[in-house]
Structures are given as C-alpha cells and as structure tokens.
Amino acid sequence: MSKDPQWLFPLEALHHSPSSIEPLDKTLYDLARGVEFLFRLGTSLKLPSPALFTAATWFHRFYMRYSLQDFHRQDVAAACVFLATKTEECGRKLRDVAKVYHSKLTSVDLIDIPSECKEVDQYQTAILVTEEYLLQAICFDFTVESPHAELVDLFVAIPDDRTVQDYAWTFAHDSYRTPLCILFPPRIIAAACFVLAQYIAEGPNSLPLDARISFSAPSASLPTPPSHKAASPDASRLAVEFFALSENDVQNVADALNLLLEFYSVQDLSMHPHLQDIAIVRPMIAPISYCSYNIKVQPPKTSTPRDRIYKPFKPLTSDTGMSVRTPHLSSNSS
C-alpha cells in the first residue's frame, strides 16, 4: 500500500485539477506526451528504470497542484528527471540534462551542440526554476513506490514464464502514461498489469478478466498474512492470491484495468506494436466501441460505471522540433 494517502486521489479529482480549464481528454493527452518526453530524456541520460518511474510519479503529482497552462510539460519533465538523478543516486550534471533537453527539443545531435550555447543556459534556468515549484508541489516527499517493485516479487512465483513477465513489465511501464500512479497503490496497478499480461499471453481462449479477479473470502485455515504463501493451483488467480487482495482491492484492480484498457483503446497500434496482441483477443463491450484503433479486450464487467475520460487523439508522438523557450513561470512568481 502507499504509505501516504495524500498522493492518492479519486478519479473525480481529475475533472477538477488545476488544468481543468481544458477538457480532461486533452489534459490526459498532454500528460501522456509529457511522460513520453520524460522517458526519452531519462533514457538518453542512461538513467536506471527506478529513477524514471520516480520522475514520472512526481510529474503526475505536480499537475495535481499546478496547471499545464502555467508550467509547460517539457520543463516539468526535465525538472523531474533532474531531481530524480539526485534522490535516486544516479547524479547527472545540470548542464548535461539541459544539453539533452535541448537535443530532444531541436533534434540536434549532442555532439553538435557547442560548449557555449545560450539555449542550453536558458534550459538550465528553466529546469532550476521549475524544480523549486516541483519541490513545493511534492512537499519535499521523495519517497516513491512503483508497481515494478511489486511485480519483481510476484515474478518469483513464475520464474519460467518470461512472456507474462515481459507483458506485465510493459503494461506497468505504460501505466505511467496514465494517471494510475495517483489513483491507486502500486500493488493494485501491479496486479492489474499482471492479470492483463496473463490474459494476453494465453491467447484468444483466455479466461475472462472478471474470472481472474473475482473475490473469494480467504479460508479461515489459511495462515495470516497470506501474501507470500504458496501459489494457488489456480494460476489465473495468482495475483489476487499473492497480494492477498480484499474485496475492495479487487474492485480497484477492475477499475485500474478499465482505465488502462481505455487508454490503450485510443492509441495507434502502429506506434505501439505490443498493443497488436491486445487488439486480437476478444470483442470489446459497448463503452469502448467507438474508439478509433480497435482495441478488443473486454474490460472487467465489475469495474465501476463511469463516463469515458479518453477520446481518440492523433497518435501519441514524441515532442521534437520545438522552439527554444524561456522559463514559463506561474502568475504568482516573482
């Protein structure tokens, strides 16, 4: 479980975030683009995966305090990456981060950026200024848990099933392009990703998602806590058993799956090859039937009824070819 509930919000809070001047589907699209840019920036800096996951979590937390209109997603992404290099003990020089930032925005190779470059100076300033607001937004709380850490523990129970592991890891990575990390605890997200991975790996005749996450009260004879007992013979319920999910937890897993599948439903399959496997499994139910890219996995029927929050946008693309920007400060900054 998340140790600090202040960082978990109800889904309804997304409709009233500081960026709510824009339609929610547009906000979610911009946030996904911001995380995509953050991952590209961090990968170019050769940061370890935990640092990227920490930075992405801060990114989502930041925009529950400040708006996209006041702080550009790329500045915030760069500030999150720079801060993560310090807290995750994988330090990078500010100028190196700014140079990679400049390279990503302008599609200029790093080796072609001169040692004295005024644009890089501007990016350094933008990162430092934004970092001050980031620290305030996250309340100097540097502790972040990820679903990947939960998955590592779960993988011990299936050491030989690399296909399920690879799918689950990919889905957990994709989850940061959604607000899942500020809606549910890491183990709920991990369970959702693992259940979906099993479902996809088993192919067209796979057991439905609902059957995989159905709740059954634990036997009184089971040891307490049961989270690390031997796996149930019913491998389809491995995640539910391993994480000792309560009835409320199972409901949250269903809701997390629904949101993740809704996000996938508006992505371009040609841009995300791993989604091809999701598209062929099972016809989709009505609530996702109008999506433009034909994702066909049926979400859990037990998920909480709600309006869609994602609508088809142009394919999620990288942020490149942008003009040089000076720091974009909020209206109450000095």
TrEMBL record:
Region Disordered, annotated ranges: 302-334
Species in which this protein is naturally found: Lentinula detonsa
Record-given protein name: Cyclin-like protein
Coiled-coil segments: none
Bias (Polar residues) ranges: 317-334
Gene3D superfamilies: Cyclin-like
Keywords carried by this UniProt record: Cyclin
Transmembrane segments: none
Domain Cyclin-like: 36-136, 149-259
